[in-house]
Amino acid sequence: MRKIPALLLLAGALAGAFYFAGRSSHENSVPDNVAIETIATEAVAALAEAYPADEKALVRRAAHAKAHGCVKATFQVDPALPENLRVGTFAQPGQRFKALIRFSNSAFTPGPDRDPGGRGMALKLIDADPDRADPSRLRPPHDILFINYPIYFLANIEDFDNFMQVGGINGDLEHAKAYFLPDRNPFDWRLRELSIVYRNATAEISSPLGAEYFSMTPYGFGPGRAIKYAAKPCAPPEAGPTAQDNPKQDNPNYLRRALTEELKAGPACFELFAQQRPADISLDDATQNWPLTASPMVSLGRIDISQQDVAAAGRDALCENLSYNPGNAPAGLEPLGGINRARIELYSRASAYRFGRNGAAPTDAARAWDQF
Fold this sequence. Notes:
With 372 residues, the chain is of the alpha+beta class. Helix content is 28%, strand content 18%.
């Protein structure tokens, strides 16, 4: 199967020469609920095709199939958080939470880390005091999903529907071309979206702990307010043999190696930020950048990752069975916009299919935190 890198090279050349702001004539106008149903159905069908039942292979996620590892962490709400930002999870300045983080590649199928693609960071905040062994919690975990690029390449549900219907989720050249370059008419080409994919997929990192991550899509933050999240390293990891590795090296798992060796050597941390939506930007266009000049990021707190053995026995199995969904959010912090509405259903349906096929149950996050 020819993968998307060849198309990415084409994107770089085309995006530098042309820019078409108009929407494609291939948009549809089906109701949101119908489009969301189609998106979820196509995702499950893609998994069924990629992992035939008679091969008895482990069914992976519909996105971010390859994990570099899961890590145990804590999150502390900024003790000096301004009163107007004290919402939901962040209502009590100084409060601490257990947290589990899954670092990953964004591709539909696992492949070498040197392949172009986005890098993910999925954060699960668990409502239980880190100093207590009791895994009980007052409310369900709060999931925040990040990737190492600030904007999404699909604007809305219609785009998401079209992308899924041409098989774009598979990540191969033929299906991706059917979405981005559907015919010979350049006014039908989705060059802006293709250039977003290109910039994200070619952003190289040498360690999951050294990248900056963004939610890409918006979330509520109290009545009448929307934000995007970002997570940035408190400081770059200490220089070491893996931190200096060239991403083009032959090691197909160099990002896992970097994560493992850096956390074996010492702790790491990220700062969690919120950026409020500028007034003139639509919640239903996930391809729009939110200018920092109009709305600077504000710190919500700090994520601390302790020194640990990422490759400890049994941890990969717990990691594989962790389930994340942007819909896992407390009241007032719900995901917003069409892309998120589609993702919630897609993740839910794909997760149920994956666990059913694998004969597994989702990992209990609070208990896993105690076992890590």
